[in-house]
Specification:
flat, alpha/beta, single chain, 8 helices, six-stranded mixed beta sheet, 306 residues
């Protein structure tokens, strides 16, 4: 799987038994610097692969773009200080604060495929300088510097509350297993989150993406939709493999997704944002049961909801 996984030696210890040495398969985690028009915007720790989708989804989440046509192109550049595709050299320039530490991966300035420069379509405004990250976005948390719920509501291009989609409960309970069946890298490493997008009407699995960061997995899904001109994602369900945080609800709202389902718990702020935006938020989706925290009317059940 190339740079998605690596093999590393490990010592396995078991109480009452002899230690053993073997090779273990690990999920790769590397920084990706996202630039727009040559200007550094953010650094996120991610699993390499589907980087263009990741960048496109990130820009949707930040309100920089809202349609696929706003995204013109993207190219992997050399390391810090190069402004174009890597050829082993480049015109030096002062790297922005978001580039700190990237050169540890290739001190020669060669192309590590860890810098992606996005070109927006003509007429699309460049990101507000206030969006520029001055620190790393870690693999455990992708949200920083936002003014909470109000910041999301003021920039979202889509009204998920008006989406009249409905979903049969029997269809929804099958989504976690369908997602799990497509987590090929997780099977090898046990170390990746996953996100999947389903069509609510047909139950069809549209796309699955894995990453060390749950927010990155969702950005890759949203980016896939953007690059395939499928925004807004009306009538779809976003299924995630872990908990439902505020940032995942935010990303769903920004992409026009009316329902988010998670196998674990949501946070209080995630529920608050789901309620205020009209998104259906499902947690603890395991087996045949679940908790529904908002807009339960979208779920069709055999028995009335008390």
């Amino acid at each position: 799987m190339g740079r998605i996984t690596v093999r590393r030696p490990v010592v396995k210890l078991t109480l009452g038994a002899e230690s053993t040495r073997r090779a273990d398969t690990l999920a790769v985690e590397e920084p990706l610097e996202i630039r727009v028009g040559g200007t550094p915007l953010a650094v996120t720790m991610r699993t390499p692969g589907n980087d263009v989708e990741l960048a496109a989804g990130f820009l949707v989440s930040e309100g920089v773009i809202s349609l696929g046509e706003h995204f013109r192109s993207a190219i992997h550049c050399g390391g810090p200080g190069t402004g174009g595709p890597s050829t082993g050299s480049g015109t030096a320039s002062a790297p922005g604060p978001a580039t700190v530490g990237l050169d540890i991966l290739d001190p020669t300035g060669g192309n590590t495929y860890n810098v992606l420069d996005v070109t927006l379509a003509p007429g699309v405004a460049l990101p507000d300088p206030e969006l520029t990250r001055t620190f790393y976005t870690t693999s455990s948390c992708g949200l920083c510097g936002k003014a909470s719920i109000e910041a999301v509501e003021t920039v979202s291009a889509y009204d998920v509350d008006s989406d009249d989609m409905t979903l049969d409960l029997a269809t929804l309970i099958g989504f976690p297993d369908a997602l799990r069946a497509h987590q090929s890298v997780f099977d090898k490493t046990g170390g990746l989150h996953a996100a999947a997008l389903f069509d609510a009407e047909s139950g069809e699995l549209l796309v699955v993406r894995e990453d060390v960061g749950r927010h990155n997995a969702v950005d890759k899904v949203v980016g896939w939709a953007a690059l395939n001109d499928r925004l807004p994602l009306r009538g779809t369900v976003l299924q995630v493999s872990g908990r439902a945080s505020f940032e995942l609800v935010q990303k769903a709202v920004m992409a026009g997704i009316p329902m988010l389902a998670a196998v674990s718990a949501p946070s209080s702020l995630a529920v608050e944002l789901a309620e205020s935006s009209g998104l259906t938020l499902v947690g603890f989706l395991r087996g045949t049961s679940m908790n529904v925290y908002s807009r339960v009317d979208r779920l069709l059940t055999a028995a009335p909801v008390g």
